[in-house]
Each structure stands twice: as structure tokens, then as C-alpha cells.
Design goal:
The protein has 92 residues and is mainly beta. It is built from 1 helix and 6 strands.
Amino acid sequence: MAKATKIKLKDGCTSPKSTLEISEIYLEGVNKEGFYTKAAVHDFVKDENVVTVNIGPSYPKLIAVVSPKGEKYVRSEPNDTKDDNLLKLPRV
């Protein structure tokens, strides 16, 4: 199963409030591990591939979303935390 293990933020962003501010996500457990754009991860998830966020104990799944401006991105399933678990991954 694929898992998201770290993120890169958009240039100039230091304290993101939304997963829209992520530029790339590192995926493990895929054919070619590495950083992928959030749009590529969106399409991967949209094609019925499961990607989990490497934050336990719940390891939430990623959900493909499109912003009101048409920007493809992903966020994690809602759970009992205030902030999206994707934003809690290590940043590079």
C-alpha cells in the first residue's frame, strides 16, 4: 500500500493552514518512490489507488479534492485532529 511520508511546501510558505499550500508529496510503496506533485497524487488517488498518511495510529487515507479555482490537490480523511494530518508530515 502506498503511503505519504513527507511534504514540500510552495515557495515562501512556512506555516501552512491548508493542504493547498503543499507543492509535492513523497510517496513510498509505489513503483517509483519519490516526490510527486499534488496534482499527480490527486490523479493517482482518483484512479482508486489507496494512499495513507504515515501518521499513526489512524493512518488516514488521502482524498482527491478540487479547489474552487480548479486546482487539484489531496487532503486526509477527517478524524479527531484539528489540522489535516498531511500537514503534520516532515517537511523538506
